[in-house]
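ARCHIVE CARD
Drawer: 12
Card no.: 0347
Subject: one protein chain, sequence and derived structure
Cross-reference: see card 0346
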Amino acid sequence: MKTTITILAFLCISLVGFSQTNTITLVQKFTDCAPVTQRLIQVNFSTEQRAELEKDTRKLAKLNYVMAQSYRFEDNQMVLRSQRQLFDAKSYESYRKKDRRVTIFDSTTGLYVELYSWNEMDVQLSQIDIQYDIVSCN
């Protein structure tokens, strides 16, 4: 029964995800996060904070979204995997606008990055909450 509910929840979320610009990843453990998220957590969080994040998968999923999916690299440039892992979206939070995307130049990676608006991020973060609410109903 639990497996059936999980599968149905996943299918519902998948359908909702098709209407969004980003797909939302259901994160259950640290290793499910994007490589950039894993690197930034290891660099910026203490061992105790990482242990707490591992217990709070909803918070971990939201952090993964912010660090790995709340932006996109401009199309007209070659982006190496190593550059993707170096980009720190949290350092550009003050540049984000409420209702429009902003393009910034990141000197660490040498790339132009389009930051999603706060409104777009709110929608995606709400979708993550919905995912975890559905899964926790089991």
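Annotation on reverse: Residues 36 and 47 are 18 Å apart (CA to CA). The mean pLDDT is 85.
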